[in-house]
Protein: YfiR family protein
Amino acid sequence: MQLLKLLLNGLLITLTLFFSANSAATEKEYMLKAGFLYNFARFANWVTPTYHNDNFTLCSPDETFINIADVALTKRSIKKRPLVNKHISLNSSSLTQCNMVFITSKTYQDWVNTPGLTYQNILLVGESDGFIENNGHIRFFLSSGKVRFEISPNNLKSNGLTMSSKVLRLARIVDG
Structure:
């Protein structure tokens, strides 16, 4: 009986450490991606820019990401407008408040399964396989343990956006 208690306690400690390490890795990765998103916004060009409440709004349906972005991007501005991070639902009325939307792997299936949403004038960034093929603009991927990104200039253009050549030189260019 004592041995069983020791084994269960050991298992509990192992699981706690595993999930804590996994959570810390996710937080670090999201901090890094928030920094990338900030720079994408700085170097993107909107054919017809729209700002809500005179802010630049970064949105995501993933509340965990938004909480991390609040820390990583505090007191930042884009195009001389305060950067605001906003947790949204995937619906048309929520999207009208956004200049950029980040679809995490956790929210990707919800995004794919929500047809009829339009992203005109919204920079759309994700991290899941198939994101670009589903009309996303920029997708993060891991290569040799590093975060990299690919961009579809065609998808950007069809939604009223362009990206600076400075960013395009760092990206893997793909067709939409």
